[in-house]
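Customer ticket, subject: "Can you confirm the structure for Cytochrome P460 domain-containing protein?"

Message body: Hello, I'm evaluating your service for our small team and ran a test protein. I'd like someone to confirm that this is what the system normally returns, since I don't have a reference to compare against.
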Amino acid sequence: MLSIAVALPTLAVARDAITANTHAPAYTADDKLMLPADYREWVYLSSGLGMSYSEKAPNSDPVFDNTFVNPESYREFLRTGTWPDKTQIVLELRGSTSNGSINQHGHYQKGDVQGVEVHVKDTARFKGGWAFFGFDGGAVAEKIPTTASCYSCHAAHGAVDTTFVQFYPTLLPIARQHATLSAAFLKEEGIIK
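Agent reply: Thanks for trying us out. I re-ran your input and got the following:
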């Protein structure tokens, strides 16, 4: 009986170590977000091709966007259908081409990263819980001002907690299962009036 009593706290510590967010946002002394160096090893959510929220048609070589989330937040989303505090969702932009090698149709990703944006949930740091950061080739970025359209667009159209889960085909069913889809998204989809 004593060995069980000793083992239980040990298991709890091991569980906490496994669930601890080792990929929490890191900031500089002047409140800039540090780009997670290993984000390409995180959980891949989806890619878009030529996505735009304006009515302009994409160019002939549209941009790919690849989306990654830190593993701890992904596991919590699977469990609850919502994002925990310290979530980081990384959007990586890459150019595309259709000309190369043996390709005869369609587009593939080509070239260097054209930009990186990070959507961070840090409720102690940001009013509203979330903030956006745009990296322009550097390893640190200032917070995008809350007057930028990304904040109002995400608030008005985000399927879950101001995030565009509607574009992540493996997570949208999880949000439906947990009934965490926003009223705004459900209205856009015609599910509620």
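A couple of notes from the result: The radius of gyration is 19 Å. Strands lie at 33-34, 43-49, 64-69, 88-97, 108-121, 130-135, 140-141. Feel free to reply with more questions.
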